[in-house]
Design brief:
Layout: E1 2-6, E2 12-14, E3 20-27, E4 31-38, H1 42-46, E5 79-83
Antiparallel strand pairs: 1-2, 1-5, 3-4
Length: about 90
């Protein structure tokens, strides 16, 4: 399984390729910036031999939603990727 972490957030799981991780960050002088990270497929990163079957998840995964206004400005988000191989 693949986990994605952005700056000052917890690790969020990628259950399947194409899944969204919702990111909301407060940016000083800008406000709340919202974006989505699209999970890659496990086979794209590790090869089919090392991947468990993908799991379909319908709930929202990511940072909690804030009710404040946001700006449509794109910001660079540093992403840490942690790969976990379950046998």
């Amino acid at each position: 399984m693949l986990f994605i972490k952005t700056q000052n957030s917890k690790f969020y799981p990628c259950y399947q390729g194409g899944q969204f991780i919702h990111v909301e960050k407060r940016v000083y002088g800008v406000g709340t910036v919202r974006t989505r990270i699209v999970c890659p497929s496990c086979t794209e990163l590790c090869g089919k031999l090392f991947c468990a079957p993908e799991k379909i998840v319908t709930e929202r995964i990511g940072d909690p939603t804030r009710n404040k206004s946001h700006s449509p400005i794109f910001i660079a988000i540093s992403i840490s990727v942690l790969m976990y191989h379950a046998l």
